[in-house]
Amino acid sequence: MKRFFIVYSLLFGVGTMVADDSIEVYGCYGSSQHIVVNGRVFDSKEEMSHSKEDGYVTNLKNKFSQVFNSEKKNEALTLTINQSRYQIESDDEGYYSFEATTQEDSFVDNQTVKIAMNGGKTVIGCQAFIPSPKKQIGVISDFDDTLIVSDVGDKFNLINNIFFKNYTQRTLIPETQESIKKLLKKDGKRAFFVLSGSPKQLQNSIDNFLDYHHFPKRTVITKKLNGDNSDSLLDQLEYKYAKIQKLILLYPNIRWVLFGDSGEKDKEAYTKIARAYPNRVEAIYIRNVENGKIEKFPK
Question: Domain range for residue 229?
Fold first, then answer.
């Protein structure tokens, strides 16, 4: 990967800045007794900006800069939560993943977590999402063709959308956005997870799109396609089932409303979850990618 990054920089690395020794956080959430933090570390990573005026060449270059970076493998990291410190190590692709469980209610909403490397010279913090333990409704939504037009079923359009457009140029699906916003406005803050089949290398693009269109605060879960404990590239049903099951077990007081589309096994994964956990799924909404209509399905 580093060799590719060097070659790529020589060919395309004009007009961008390279940030040294950076830490990214992809997930920072949990419950009062369990916390999850994951992300990736780099020894060089290109920084870039995007606009509606960017052309195809600029977007392609920026996408490659996002996907191919020089990661820090087997890097020692220190996580600090409250007064406790934990030592972990990134894997051979620079990814790190950490989970801690306590017997007491040790974690609160906006729990501060600090991740450090280089002996504390490089530090990043995140505010963990810890929902209230009261009974409530939460939302889990797919991303492609549920919140954003990707045309997953048309490979030419899919490639064009992913590689030749930036997040400011992608098309929002407003009907799903409005439905989710209405649900999340009720009873104050609610749990909101975006579960995507996209690789983690595209996580920033997903978050940027959601921020750009003013989605509520959420946690984005993406696929880890390389390194240790990687997810299946093709098995969307089992991937989504396993991730939703983990959230169901983590949050026993939340009933979930699930949003998806007809293109990538969302309905099958959601109905399988509803059969396994009949009291934990409030409703299932599937957007028909052919006509754009959103239909509610019984559990």
Answer: 136-297
